[in-house]
Amino acid sequence: MSEPTRLKDAGTDAQKALLRAGAPEMPLGLKESVRARVESRISNRKAPWVLRMAFATGVLFVGGGAMAYGVIHVQRLWRAEQSAPAGAPTRVTRRYEAAPARQAIVLPPSDNEAEERNSQEPPKPQRRRTRPERSSPPLAYVEPPVELAAPPAPPAAPVLSGPGLGLHELIMEGQAEEPRVVQPTKPAPPAPRPGRFLVKWESRRGAALDVLDLYGQGDALARITGSVNRTPLSIDIRKRLIVGKIGDEVVNIWLKGEEQAEGSIAGYPVFFQVSSTQNGFLLRGTLPGHTARLETRKGLLRWYPGCENALAATSPGVYQGTCTEGNNASVVLPPAFRKLPPLARLVMLAIVLTERDPVFKDDKPQLFNPTP
Amino acid sequence: MNVAVREDSAEVGRIDADWVSRCKAGDKLAWRQLYDQHAPLVYRLGRRMGLTEEKTADVCQEVFLRVYRNLGHFRGDSQFSTWLYRITINEVSRAHREGSVRRALDAMLGRQWQPADADPGPERRAQASEAAVVLEEILGRMKPKKRSVFVLFELEELSTEEIADVLGCGVETVKSRLRHARAEFDRLHKQRALVVMQGGKR
Q1: Averaged pLDDT, A348-353
Q2: Of A264, A82, A277, A72, nearest to A174 (Cα)?
């Protein structure tokens, strides 16, 4: 098949006139501007995609490697810090500044400590790092912890005195800050002996409970076992929970913060609210069968129902006096109980001490055996 | 096409081949000569394919950028101008697609689309002859495939083999499209003449 003829040559006159019209011409300057744009794009040519991918991959690897190295390094530091024996030199630690004079209990060194100190190995030479000094003040390199293990004798703590009150009483009343005594970690301390929590009445129920100090064992604070008016009681006190049993009934109380607690005892909902008063604490709450009110104030202890007259503290943790009904009563709180947080301590006191008077004979539940 | 034109075409092809080989060797002067020689061709084709002046400048830029980047792949089996035509036709199609997408987007957003060269304006009318304006209008109403074949054959005066090479289709397909394109051109031309005679809008 031959090449077709063009309309320009073989078409009608009108078609010829149209097709022979002048072709569009490039405007002046457009050719140069387009050429300049093309040449600028040629000179700024992007790297081929292979190179770009290789660069991105390299950045990814380097970044990932740096991150992995950082994580491993931090983990190693953390493990070294965890596994270091007490008093061993740490690489970076907080600077121990001169502590301000404060009221604190300084326990005399025990025999074990003295032996340990005598048999302590000479400190290992400190590993110094050639890093420039940091500008942040709280962190610094410290000398081997010989000084840490045997700090200079602090100024003698002022002896607290009050009207028949010891320091524990003041702590309990909120007048004194609970001391934080830093004790060096000892390997396998001997199991502490439980303290006795005693309640004695002339004509009503009594209680004899063992309070085991569990501080430092997870979130456990204390374990209270024994019997109240011949009803067995076994309760664990944790940082946020009071759980256990009274007789066959389950106790489950959640400590919400430092002022409120709620939960259930024997399936009955209970609620407690602790308020801080001028010289102590005031607890109000509900228990199965009755509402409770318990107040500790400046060496005094009173609760309702049960003992509306306050018992006075005769020695740390020992309260004695005569209740409203004329019955003599005494309450002995062991140190392990006294060092519990106020909320848990007052809730336990309310559970053990307050009880609906047995003269009210109705069908309301009774927490402990009502018969004296 | 007479013998003199063929000899001219062969001579141009040889010169192009020489410049292309020098461009491949990194001769910037040869690249500029190649550009200066063929930029009007790209511009003319873009305009005849219905692009605006701005779009044509962009297409021109993209075409020569692709030429520069792919010059190493140009084997020389066909003429350089044929290869350039193919690249230009592809870029023009891409520009048309972009324009249609933009128009669709404008329609979705409720904006009124107005073609940039809907009315050439008095200046443009003064520059171009009346025949050129009429030709541009008729070409603007043709279907793209028919239009490309028509423009390449009737205006750019490529042979059917070259058009087949540019468009990547068979020679018979080119001839078929050309036949249909001519019929459509004739119909549109007559239609326009009728409208002008009746004194209506173009």
Answers
A1: 89
A2: A277
